[in-house]
Each structure stands twice: as C-alpha cells, then as structure tokens.
Amino acid sequence: MRKTLFYISTFLLFSFVIHSEENRLLEKEVSIHVENERLDDFLNRLSQEVGGIFSYSPSAIDISQRITGEFTNKSCREILEAVFQGRIKYKQKGNYIILSPAPAPEKEITISGYLVDESSGERIRNATVYDPITLKSSTTDEFGFFEIALKNPTGEDFELIINQERYTDTLLVDQKRSSFKRIFLRKETAETLTKPMKDFLLWAKESIGVKNSKNVRDTLTRKFQFSIVPFVGTNQKLSGSVVNDYSINLFGGYSAGTNKLELGGLFNLDRGQVSGIQIAGLINQVGGSVKGFQIAGLANVNLDSLSGFQGAGLTNFTLRDVKGVQASPLLNISGGSINGFQASVLANYTHKHVKGVQAGILGNIAGGYVEGFQFGLFNYADSVKGASIGLLSFVRKGYHTIEIGADEIYPLNIGLRTGTRGFYNILSAGIRPEKADSTTWSFGYGIGTSPRLGKKTYLNFELNTSQMNKGKVLATNLINRIYLGFDYQVAKGVALYGGPSFNIRIFDTSFDDHPETFAYSAPRVFGRKSIENLNLGQEIWWGFRAGIRFF
C-alpha cells in the first residue's frame, strides 16, 4: 500500500513539474533592444536571454527581415507576437521553441493573450474565456495565458466572454482581429461593499451568543423557536447555531436558518439559508439564499440569492441572482442577474443580466443584457433583446443615430434616436433661416420602431410632436406627426431615409404672431377648425421627410 501511494504521488509530482515547465521559456520576461537587425540574429540573441533554442525552417520564415524595437520586461511570447504579428505559431517542446507558419486567416484565427489583475498587475489563472457562438473555450494557465482557435470566421466582429469567480464578467469585442491581447480584469466589489451589512444589528460582537455562533461548527436543528431578542429565547445563547422549522420572534431573532416560517415583530436575522415564509415588521437579513416569500416593513437584505418573492415597504437588496419577483416603492437591487420581475415606484438595478421585466417609474439599469422589457422614464442596458420603453433609453449596443434632413416645413432638421430598433426615443430640432427679425425653429420629442424588411432595408414608424416658434416660445403651436418611411443602409454607419407623413397642427388662436407654417412648400391644408372654448385651432395636411442618418 505504501509503495502504491509512493508511486502515485511521484507520478503526480512529475506531471506537475512537466506541466509547469511546458511554457517556462515562452513566459520568461526579458528586456532587449533591437535596431535594424536581421531576424535570425535577433532570434539568436533572444534565445540566449530566455535560455532556449528556436527551431524553424528558413524557407518558411523570412530570416532576412529587419527588426527594430524596444522590449522592457516583456515575456518571450509577447516579443514574438510583436515581431511576427500573428503570422507565426510557436510552442515549447523541451528546451526548444518551435516556430511554424500560422493557418491562413480565412480558415482559422487564433486569439490568445494574458488576463491581468487591473490593480495588482498579477496574472489571473483559472479564468474561462469562451466564444458564445461556437462555445469553444480556454482556461488560463498558471501564467494567465489563454488561446482559442476560431474556424471559418465571418467578416463581423468577434466576441469573447471572460468569467472568473472573483472578477467582474468581461465582454471582449474585437474589430481589428489582432491575435494577441493583454486584458485587464477588475475584481468584484459587491462583497466588499456589503461587508458592513453582514454585521448589521450584531451589536454584541463580543457577547457569548456571537462567540458561540463562531465556535460551534455543527448545525443544530429544532422544530420551534421563540425569542424576545437575539439570545433571549428558547434556543438561548446557541440560537445563532440552530436552524429552526418555525421561529417566532417578539422583537427580533437570530438563528442559523429557517426551514418553514419565521415571524419577527421588528427584525429577523439568519446566518444561513431561509426557506418558506419570512415576515418582519422592519427588516429581514439573510446571510444565505432565500427560497420562498420574504416580506418586510422597511427592507430585505439577502447576501446570497433569491428564488421566490421579495417585497418590502422601502427597498430590497439581493447580492446574487434573483429568480422570481422583487417589489418595493423605493429601490430593488440585484447584485447578480434576475430571471423574473423587478417592480418599483422609483428605480430598479441589476448588476448583470435581466431575463424578464424591469418596471420602475423613474428608471431601470441593467449592467448586462436584457432579454425582455424595461419600462421607466429612463432606462439603461448593455444590450436588449426585446424593448426598453420610456422617455429616454440608452442601450450601449443598441440603436443610436444622428440624422440630418428636411421636410415641408424646415429645410434643416436634426434628430437623435436612441434605444433599440424595437423601440427608440427621438429628440429633434428644426430651423428655417428667414429674413424676418426672428428665426423660425422648433424642438420636439417622439417615439418609433424600425423593423427589418431586408438585408439593408428597414421600415420606420414614428410618432412625433414639436413646438414651432418664431424667436421665443410664446404660445402653443404644436406640429404632431405620424411618419411611415423607409431606411436604406448605403454603407456601414450611413443610411438614407424618406417617406410620407400625416400632420396635425394645434395652435393658440388668441396669439397673432405665429410663424408662417410653410415657406418652401405649399401642401394642401384641410380639416381646418376651431375649438372656441379652448382658444385652439387645427390644421391637417400630408407631408414628406427625407435625409441621411449616421451611426
């Protein structure tokens, strides 16, 4: 038996040493200066610096190539990437570094590089880098190095997703197709920011009850607990180490967890997981996950995940993922992703992704993608598969255009569209230079949708209203427009648009100095009428819009 263990341990140690030595030469950092030097001479000098031998065929590599560069504290791998620009593949075998031509770019692209801690500069090991389309992946080694080969790449940008449990998830989008990268990751801050919450209401840190909670590692169980305040109840000073099926707390209770029901007059504190129903007059705080219903008069604070319903009179906070519903008047926060519904009178925040609905009157923020809908005055997301509906929505990878055009009223219109093709907001302005004392101009707001009709063609359906003025804004003079047109992409980031519009002008009939509606065109106006008791007038006509859009 001892011999067997000896052989196994020897084999594992030998395997570890071989693996560690596998990339030792490529990862050795050196400083070297070169100026107009032949490639073969440069490789000879570099081999002496790293302590290895370069093996290559002179017929496959242009050894007469001249090299100039300054490399300071760079790994051998980075120096080779800078010299060959991805044209050469290399690998270490024993004391040799073998150089060979890389596959043709139209057949395969190899993306490689280092993951580095943004604050310390240390390489990050055991991180996962993967392509979300093909699901090809690579895990960084002890040097923080990764490598992925993508076959049959298209002309579009490629995306790689980078995950490491201690760092913020990162999306790498590359347009230049550079093969080697040094990527900096930022550590997750949520755990640090919420550390004070973990000690919330534990005012008696030096009490026997808290010391017992730290010392007693076994989890005790009880069917029922009654407490007046923490450590004053049926579970006495071991309450922090006991998981209860039922817990009734007159003012507040402290336990290791709850399986079925917990009621607290003021607060409930649970170190671990809560399942079933938890209700508190003021605050629920749970150190583990919550599965079930959690209701509090003021706030719910979960330092893990939620699967179920979380309702509070003020705010809800869950550090990790939410699967279910968060509802509160003030603010809902999820430090992870949410699969379900966030509803708040004020605002909702999800640090990562949303699959479902965010509905906040003031606004909604999703740090990752939204697969569903956002409803609020102001919305933000990284990307949206669905719609962000509100007064103003910004989707980082969404629909953003600036347009310059003309219509039957103004020879110059400028518009900004932001949101998604499914639903976007429009901020607009128009101007008509005139010889009169004051310039005729307008400002407006609208909403629209732009479904795809063909490879480069989109339909535009928009509702817009604008205030028409001469000089200062002195009286109601609204141009309300329904527009149906087409958008044709002539090049990347450039489109032409045009189409008819149906227009209704509503204006103050008691004001005599409205600007002339038309100066460069003469559409037929119909539907004129007055609303006498409101001092308003109406005019209707058909118009047209056309122009160019960018981005």
What summary fits the major beta sheet?
A: 20 strands, mixed
The assigned structural class equals mainly beta
Taking the alpha carbons of the first and last residues, their distance comes to 71 Å
Alpha-carbon Rg, integer: 33 Å
Mean pLDDT: 85
- What percentage of amino acids are in beta strands? over 45%
Portion of residues within helices:
10-25%
Total DSSP E strands: 41
Organism: Algoriphagus limi
Protein name: Carboxypeptidase-like regulatory domain-containing protein
What does this structure look like?
It is a single chain. The protein has 551 residues and is mainly beta. 11% of the residues lie in helices and 55% in strands. The protein has seven helices and 41 strands. The strands form six sheets. It has a 20-stranded mixed β-sheet that branches. Strands 33-34-35-36-37-38-39-41 form an eight-stranded antiparallel β-barrel. The protein has a four-stranded antiparallel β-sheet with strand order 8-7-10-11, with no helix packed on it. A hairpin with a 4-residue loop joins strand 40 and strand 41 (536-550). The longest helix has 21 residues, at 2-22. The model is unreliable at 1-21 and 190-209 (pLDDT under 50).
